[in-house]
Specification:
Structural class: alpha/beta
Helix content: 40-55%
CATH architecture: 3-Layer(aba) Sandwich
Length: 350
């Protein structure tokens, strides 16, 4: 059954304290400073804009594509990045992917379309069904039973392929994702657990080890704001979202690590900030160490950039055999672009 979008205005949490700045009722506290609604919004937005400027995430002449799922993180990124781009006369548009997860993605895709309608933003939509011939709902059981692969790992590979290929075809020079502080801390710890420090070298506010004309740089304007802060921001702003998790994520390794870190912050509130700030200190050394060992070439099957003979998406196709359609073929611009639905909406902001 399709879930309804929820109006979050009436579920804003409060704390038994007053705003440090103005003395009004506080809704958030961080490192001894308390914020009312208005001052929290200022704090949050300034933090995001300072992140964009500190790491040079968006520059004059960029054409910015925002990967927008309709969830709280990507919607917040879309809202703030589009405002930033509008201020500096930089082109910005949204790209949405419908993986075919009933009762979840259909709700969030509706949300992002409605949001773009209000904001007057162009949005391009793609579906797994059109591009790969199957939905994630159809693939889930096959992956678990026949291939012993978690749905999240497969979905991630397919999503990353679509985001890079289609944003590049649309002329994007930067691809915005909604990854926040929690996501980065989780990914760093996951790579440590698995002994993949070379993967950590690809992380940071701008993802990747090397520049390549076929790779659209991925930027993370929410890099230094937490998931809790982002949720509170959307609640105060009144964004209509579905605050629900993907039904397939219960099997993910990330959910396990997320639970561990959430338990840790109960006794060490700034643990996630500590992890990410420590990571940023060692990131230059990681990039220097692992960049020489990374040689980018083209996948011998599809032509996309990869450090292997065949990219992960094509290796996945080999495992799933007939469960995916055309993922191993070289992308054809004229064919694939027809599958995108472009919506140019008018602003209703008055």
């Amino acid at each position: 059954m399709k879930k309804e979008l929820c109006d979050p205005k009436n579920v804003i949490p409060s704390i038994d304290a007053k705003c440090t700045t103005c003395g009004k009722d506080a809704v958030y506290q961080n490192q001894g400073t308390r914020y009312c609604r208005n001052h929290f919004v200022d704090y949050f937005e300034n933090k995001v804009y300072k992140t964009i400027q500190r790491f040079n995430l968006i520059e004059p002449g960029d054409r910015v594509c925002v990967a927008a799922s309709g969830g709280k993180d990507s919607t917040t990124a879309l809202y703030l990045v589009s405002r930033y781009c509008r201020k500096y006369k930089i082109e910005c548009f949204a790209l949405s992917i419908d993986e075919g997860i009933s009762g979840y993605r259909d709700v969030s895709v509706d949300a992002v379309k409605n949001f773009c309608n209000v904001q007057g933003l162009r949005i391009y939509t793609f579906t797994f069904k059109d591009l790969y011939g199957k939905t994630m709902d159809q693939l889930r059981e096959t992956m678990l039973k026949e291939h012993n692969k978690r749905p999240c790992s497969v979905c991630g590979v397919l999503r990353r392929r679509v985001l890079n290929v289609e944003s590049r075809k649309l002329g994007a020079t930067k691809l915005v994702t909604g990854h926040n502080l929690d996501d980065e801390a989780q990914t760093f710890i996951m790579n440590v657990y698995q002994g993949n420090m070379s993967h950590n070298a690809k992380m940071g506010p701008i993802s990747g080890l090397r520049q390549d004309t076929k790779f659209v740089p991925r930027i993370k304007p929410l890099y230094l704001v937490s998931e809790a802060e982002t949720k509170l921001y959307t609640q105060i702003k009144g964004f209509k979202l579905c605050y629900c998790s993907c039904p397939h994520s219960d099997l993910s390794f990330r959910r396990f690590v997320k639970g561990q870190l959430n338990e840790l912050v109960k006794i060490l509130p700034n643990a996630k900030y500590g992890i990410v700030n420590s990571f940023l200190e060692i990131l230059p050394d990681l990039k220097r160490k692992y960049r020489p060992s990374v040689e980018l070439g083209e996948c011998e099957t599809c032509g996309e950039p990869t450090t292997q003979k065949r990219c992960n998406a094509c290796l996945l196709e080999e495992k799933l055999h007939s469960d995916l359609k055309n993922i191993g073929e070289k992308p054809k611009a004229s064919k694939t672009r027809k599958k995108a639905k472009s919506i140019k909406t008018r602003s209703k902001r008055g």
